[in-house]
């Protein structure tokens, strides 16, 4: 059953059918309850069609080509440049040609009902869905309503920007043409990844950022990525703002910068932040501001201004939850899915009269959002991060040791690519002698990340990590070198 006209009451209603909403509903159904998802766009959400999957497909061919060219014999076997049309065609396959029928079939097979339309909370445990033809259906939940509507690109207040028809991450991910000249406003993850992708696909890319590149990660990682972009021909303007954008005629976009320079481009991509998809959800009925990020407690229940769950008195318990980007805990798809699994299982547990396990690292806790957020940035070189940075650890009040090592000095890295350049850093909590942060930057460092994640979430003492012997010769030998460096330094 993919529509719910025959049945308007479910145990759980989920607004938003992205990966987070799908996972909440799936865990609820696996827990013996009924669930329905309300979705106004494509089932599968941002990640499937305009973010994770299509953007990484845009990046992957170029990464493989760079890897081949980093080895002398392979470099001689490679002729020509990237086939941009073939890259876009492969991207289209990963985006399912923006057709969600496969995802709809998955919902149907999982026993999850789908209601197409725009959902609004109109009462306690009640969601009214408005379809494109303005007909409505009122849905009711027995246990919970979950908001999993994600976020959208936020346009900064730059003069003339709205009239210049800028790209956001959506247009960049779905484009069918490669512009000759692309200007990117924003030096965060999206801006840096798309500058990497489009420069490899043949665009002359200019990137403008008011801050350093990748300001949320260790500075050395941003510096190496900036070097990689410059080597790829990207023109970086760091520490400046775009003050005005205007489109001359049908094609040329002219950007004025705060340092007096002007940049011409065929398209301008804005990647300066996100805004929550919470407009017109009926939040005002609950005393919450429309369009706001949603504050949640450790159980992911939505909180009001008094830091108490919203309107619990009507049913005697929390009933409204928020998972994924909208709660701003960790705005990454994999962390949203992590929240969703914990939340779906906790809702099912409560429905069966059991108390959820919300203790630190408990079955239904989302402790990793505070202590072990993981992220890979698919630039050249890659950046892999888990836990705290040196600055973040200091702000949090930890007494730390910081241990750095040159990744290029590791035998496995030298074998991996000629001229391998990279760096790794451990952040150690001195009081407990455990890892609380890890950053690596270099070609293919993504594969180092899960070992660090396990060390942090498992709170493995460094004395025990000495016995986790890395295979030789692999890039994972960096773990031994970091431990040796730490042992020499204190």
C-alpha end-to-end distance:
63 Å
Second rung of CATH, namely the architecture of the largest domain = 3-Layer(bba) Sandwich
Number of helices: 16
CATH topology of the largest domain: FAD/NAD(P)-binding domain
**Which structural class should the secondary elements be placed in?**
alpha/beta
The CATH homologous superfamily of the largest domain is named: FAD/NAD(P)-binding domain
Give the percentage of residues in beta strands.
Answer: 15-25%
Q: What is the total number of structural domains?
A: 3
Radius of gyration: 24 Å
Extract low-pLDDT stretches. 1-5
Give the CATH level 1 class of the largest domain: Alpha Beta
Question: Would you kindly provide a written description of the structure presented here, covering whatever features stand out?
Answer:
It is a single chain. The chain is of the alpha/beta class. 31% of the residues lie in helices and 24% in strands. It folds into three domains: 9-48 and 95-152 and 276-368, FAD/NAD(P)-binding domain (3-Layer(bba) Sandwich), CATH 3.50.50.60; 162-272, FAD/NAD(P)-binding domain; 381-489, FAD/NAD-linked reductase, C-terminal dimerisation domain (Enolase-like, domain 1). Strands 1, 2, 3, 4, 5, 6 and 16 form a seven-stranded mixed beta sheet that branches. A five-stranded antiparallel beta sheet has the order 17-18-21-20-19, with helices on both faces. A four-stranded parallel beta sheet has the order 10-9-8-14. A hairpin with a 3-residue loop joins β11 (242-248) and β12 (252-257). The longest helix has 19 residues, at 333-351. The chain starts with 8 loop residues before the first strand and ends with a helix.
């Amino acid at each position: 059953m993919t529509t719910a006209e025959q049945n308007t009451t479910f145990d759980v209603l989920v607004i938003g059918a992205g990966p987070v909403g799908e996972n909440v509903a799936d865990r609820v159904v696996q827990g013996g309850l009924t669930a329905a998802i309300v979705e106004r766009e494509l089932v599968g959400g941002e990640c499937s069609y305009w973010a994770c999957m299509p953007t990484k497909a845009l990046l992957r061919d170029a990464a493989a080509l760079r890897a081949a060219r980093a080895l002398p014999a392979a470099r001689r076997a490679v002729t020509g440049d990237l086939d941009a049309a073939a890259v876009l065609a492969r991207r289209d396959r990963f985006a399912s040609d923006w057709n969600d029928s496969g995802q709809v079939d998955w919902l149907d097979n999982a026993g999850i009902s789908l209601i197409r339309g725009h959902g609004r909370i109109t009462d306690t445990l009640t969601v009214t869905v408005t379809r494109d033809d303005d007909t409505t259906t009122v849905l009711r939940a027995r246990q919970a309503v979950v908001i999993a509507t994600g976020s959208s690109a936020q346009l900064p207040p730059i003069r003339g920007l709205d009239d210049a028809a800028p790209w956001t991450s959506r247009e960049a991910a779905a484009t069918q043409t490669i512009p000759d000249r692309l200007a990117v406003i924003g030096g965060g993850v999206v801006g840096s990844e798309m500058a990497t992708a489009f420069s490899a696909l043949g665009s002359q890319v200019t990137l403008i950022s008011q801050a350093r590149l990748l300001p949320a990660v260790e500075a050395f990682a941003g510096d190496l990525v900036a070097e990689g972009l410059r080597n790829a021909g990207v023109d970086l303007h760091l520490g400046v703002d775009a003050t005005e954008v205007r489109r001359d005629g049908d094609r040329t976009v002219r950007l004025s910068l705060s340092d007096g320079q002007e940049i011409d481009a065929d398209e301008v991509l804005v990647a300066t932040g996100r805004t929550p998809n919470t407009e017109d959800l009926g939040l005002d009925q609950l005393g919450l501001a429309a369009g706001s990020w949603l504050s949640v407690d450790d159980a992911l229940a939505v909180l009001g201004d008094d830091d108490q769950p919203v309107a619990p008195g009507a049913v005697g318990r929390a009933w409204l939850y928020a998972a994924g980007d909208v709660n701003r805990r960790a705005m990454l798809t994999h962390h949203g899915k992590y929240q969703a699994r914990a939340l779906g299982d906790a809702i099912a547990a409560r429905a069966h009269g059991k108390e959820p396990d919300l203790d630190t690292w408990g079955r239904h806790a989302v402790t990793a959002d505070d202590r072990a957020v993981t992220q890979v940035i698919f630039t050249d070189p890659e950046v892999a991060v888990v836990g705290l940075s040196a600055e973040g650890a200091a702000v949090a009040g930890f007494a730390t040791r910081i241990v750095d090592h040159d990744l290029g000095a590791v035998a496995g890295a030298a074998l991996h690519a000629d001229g391998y350049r990279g760096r790794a850093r451990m952040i150690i909590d001195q009081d407990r002698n455990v890892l609380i942060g890890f950053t690596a930057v270099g070609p293919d460092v993504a594969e180092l990340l899960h070992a660090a994640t396990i060390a942090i979430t498992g709170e493995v003492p460094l004395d025990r990590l000495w016995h986790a012997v890395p295979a030789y010769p692999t890039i994972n030998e960096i773990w031994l070198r970091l431990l040796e460096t730490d042992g020499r330094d204190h």
